[in-house]
Amino acid sequence: MQKILPYAFHGLDYLYEPQLARFYNLIPAFYTTKLGEGFLNQTTQVYTSLLQSIAEQDKEYLKQILEPKLYNATTQCMDMLEEKQLKLQYIEQEQQENDDKQEEDDEEAAAQKPQQQFGFFSKKIKKNYGNNETYHIYQEKDYKCNIDVRGVFGVKINRTENQNTRFFQIPAFPITPRNYFLNLKNPFSLYENQILVANILIYTSKKLIAVDSEGKVVHGNYDNNQFQYHKLRLESYVPNFNWVITDIDDYLKGNPYF
């Protein structure tokens, strides 16, 4: 079935087949430790701000957090939904704590706040989230995730910048999750362009739905207690982390570099 948006309204059930889930759970925890304190629990900011921005039609913000090829695909689909008079809405579980409890949690979170790698994404968050220790598998009430980390060398994150260059790909070995793309005209690009790729596998009740002019749900599931599986691909040059979303729910099949 053709996807209406670079977001699977009913999730991606195939992501968490038992065998695949066990495989990702075996990835050593030190990979996430190297990513920095609080990396996994900060991904909830990325996911939430992404969905809120799509629902709010905030194309200016999306342009700053999405790789250009993914941005064009996303905004084109948003325009098509608007032409069909369908409105996107962001859904999440209702807040259970009262205002006093929320203020207490906010103060505690501020005191324990880890170094932010996703500070820009947090600007879109409409509520604060507590910060836990870094785990390979992160879980909160309505969001949990695990991660697949690998390295890519030689190409650029912006796919359009790779179009006029011929690369020779050196396959990755299973024990070293790294992919090398050799530019014969500029071999030093292997050192100049070093990319860290983080595939975030998510199980959450935070979601998008599409409704018609009468408020009837056309795409998605309005039940905010129904959990779904989703996937984000994040990429950043190292050592200066500035994460960009390069694929959502495998819409671009990993968004090939060229």
Q: How many domain regions?
A: 1
Overall SS class = alpha+beta
- Compute the number of helices: 7
The share of residues in helices is: 25-40%
The number of distinct β-strands equals 10
The radius of gyration is 19 Å
The secondary-structure element order is: HHHHHEHEEEEHEEEEE
Mean pLDDT: 79
Give start-end ranges of low-pLDDT stretches.
17-31, 96-102, 108-115, 125-136
How many angstroms separate the termini? 25 Å
Main sheet makeup: 7 strands, mixed
- Principal-axes geometry comes out as globular
Amount of beta strand: 15-25%
Give the topology, please:
Layout: H1 18-25, H2 30-35, H3 39-55, H4 59-65, H5 68-83, E1 87-91, H6 99-112, E2 138-140, E3 143-153, E4 167-170, E5 178-183, H7 189-192, E6 194-204, E7 207-211, E8 217-219, E9 228-237, E10 244-248
Parallel strand pairs: 3-5
Antiparallel strand pairs: 1-7, 2-3, 3-6, 4-5, 6-9, 7-8, 9-10
Region (Disordered): 94-114
Biased composition (Acidic residues): 94-109
Your description of this structure?
With 258 residues, the protein is an alpha+beta fold. It has one domain. The chain is 28% helix and 24% strand. The protein contains seven helices and ten strands. Strands 2, 3, 4, 5, 6, 9 and 10 form a seven-stranded mixed β-sheet that branches. The longest helix has 17 residues. It is globular. The protein starts with 17 loop residues before the first helix and ends in a 10-residue tail after the last strand.
